[in-house]
What we know:
The protein is mainly α.
Amino acid sequence: MDINWNQSAENLNRSIAEYCHAIAGLYKERVLYVNVINQVSPNCDCWGNSDAPIVPDIGILAGTDPVAVDTAAVDLVNASPGLSNSALGKAIAPGVDKFRTLVPSIDWSLQLQHGEKIGLGSRQYKLIALK
Length: 131
């Protein structure tokens, strides 16, 4: 896999979904996808640095559908209040899209839409809280 970082954000998001689909196809049902939604960075985790978290810590998600797990993670972040001491610059109400607030020019949802379209998973999910 070689990601062309110079392509458009739209193509990059679609490519990432396609690479994930190819890898997931190798392992079928033997994969558990886990998202740790703590210390949510204002930038991609691939960046070499970080900043103050944009929302309070949320917890851990796990499931066998990567698109559903990522969709639930984004929904939980956006349902949380945005922190004023972060790159958001001010307190952001629950329900506001934190990622589009930070980078309005990039539609992060394309990756999830494309993942669903190519059969990687579904954007539908059911949260089950474990205590």
